[in-house]
Request: fold
Amino acid sequence: MSAQPAPLSGTPRTRLRRSRERTVTDRAVLAEILDEAMFCHLGVVVDGAPVVLPTTFAADLGPDAPDAPHGTLYLHGSVAARSLVAAPGQTVCVTVTLVDGLVLARSGFHHSANYRSAVAYGTPRPVTGEAKLHALDLLVDHLVPGRSGTLRPPSRKDLAATTVLALPLTEVSVKVRSGDVNDETEDVGLPVWAGVLPLRTVASAPETSADCDLPVPDHVRDRAKALGTAD
Amino acid sequence: MSAQPAPLSGTPRTRLRRSRERTVTDRAVLAEILDEAMFCHLGVVVDGAPVVLPTTFAADLGPDAPDAPHGTLYLHGSVAARSLVAAPGQTVCVTVTLVDGLVLARSGFHHSANYRSAVAYGTPRPVTGEAKLHALDLLVDHLVPGRSGTLRPPSRKDLAATTVLALPLTEVSVKVRSGDVNDETEDVGLPVWAGVLPLRTVASAPETSADCDLPVPDHVRDRAKALGTAD
Reply:
């Protein structure tokens, strides 16, 4: 029997001030969001102003460190990246957003989006040594499961040029909006169409590099299939 | 003949420190990103820490105010939203990201993403009166062009509950990565598949509200068609 993970606990920052019915405290929903999303937005404060940059991430939801009983989110980038240089020792915000649809109401006011988002706050720590290699594999496998084992391992130069940060998933809020339009009762009879336009991210057929004559491997085909395809 | 818009100009904040070859100074690319993306991430500083939240936006690229000769980005939300309450009078960061694909190299180090992103900094001003109504229409039409004219107009109550902010698109950086994998020359011969897995956001068939018996209107069908569909 596996232990029940603790529910997401509120702090003044993560306790939602509005739309409390959209708050989700089930860690399984957090895990699902972190599994499905491929990108996040990292917010740091530089010279007193916010800087928000898109980046990839990976989540390790097993306990891996004393400060992260609920798992760790890994970020990486160039050692010269302004956002990563600024991050250790200060509070950062990592936001992961999945948009599931446009909610088209009879009034502009009730237009909305169906979405699932996770917002994590914390002070990231640099990851080094064996743990860094593990995190780099997770970062690749998060995009395409099974890929890291097929690659040329990181060189000394690669490692020196790459910063990996770990953010404990301790202070996290999860918000979900799903389902139908919520119009004012008196608007329902108006001659205005209302409904949801579902949205999703899909893949197209993999494009082999110009200098590669190998067939598309199963792990890439499987990834495209899992995302669904459109052409 | 239309005047040539000024190129995007660098400030210490928007001048990219790395990957300068990815910097784009053509305002047409900015316009394209703002047109195609439906959501942005708004970063503000609250109690010294960054807060990053997903939200919708609209862009008005015509000159609409003396401080915005290059256009304005509109944001809106509840008057109670922490991020919007904090925003006026302080510097905010709005990041718009379109992910076009996963770049799968022969080493983890050269894994990347094809993407187009715009990062705008500035001090937003509250929008009131007629300009607020205009901005609210733009916010709806940005999601589904042509929809605002079909809706019940905003009520006094709607307007009182909604904050609209305008951010002049003055300090903006645009970054684009596209095309094939960039592997180390010595890695090209390795028996590792390399290539790009293209990604895009598509719609599924519109879902009419349970309490609506009207047919799906053309503006919604057109939007789904423009996005492309997958089922």
Remarks:
- The two ends of chain B are 44 Å apart (CA to CA).
- Chain B is about 20% helix and 35% strand.
- The first strand of chain B starts at residue 23 and ends at 24.
